[in-house]
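I have a small job for you when you get a moment. Would you make up a two-line entry for one protein for me to read? No commentary is needed, just the two lines. Write everything out right here, beneath this request.
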Amino acid sequence: MAKLSKYQILALGIFAEAVIGAADFYAGINVSFVLFYLIPIAAVAWYAGRTFGIIATAFSLFLWLVEALRWPEIPIYYMVWPGFERGVIFVGTVWLLDYLHQTYAQRLRKAAVQYTRILETAVEAIISIDLQSKIRYVNARVAELLGYPPSAMVGKPLVEFVKNDASRLQT
């Protein structure tokens, strides 16, 4: 599955907001879709970052303005506070999600470094394979026992290295 670029994620988010905006527009003044706008905004903020989340928020506020101007019998000053409130909630959500994403990504990187260090320095032989039995990772002890460098083993089927050839084992 191909990874989407930040611009593609933003485009999908804006498309989703446009669909929500159309539903909001045609539902009328008695039905509110405010919280539904948070779904694409949150997705854009999480996967594309704060800047793109703010762009998605601006588009959502534009859709709200179009909806607000549709009802001329309601004075615009009655709509100012809900619009401000909506903007604060959306921008706050973007900022919070960006902070959480960065914090957890940093923690994940630290944990990966720690676990890699543990795997590399382990006395035991550790092999990681995927669902097709291809080797994804081997530590130095496996290379020492089987006599192959780790780079020669990664990506190849495990059965190539665990034949009935006990003479290759170096203890």
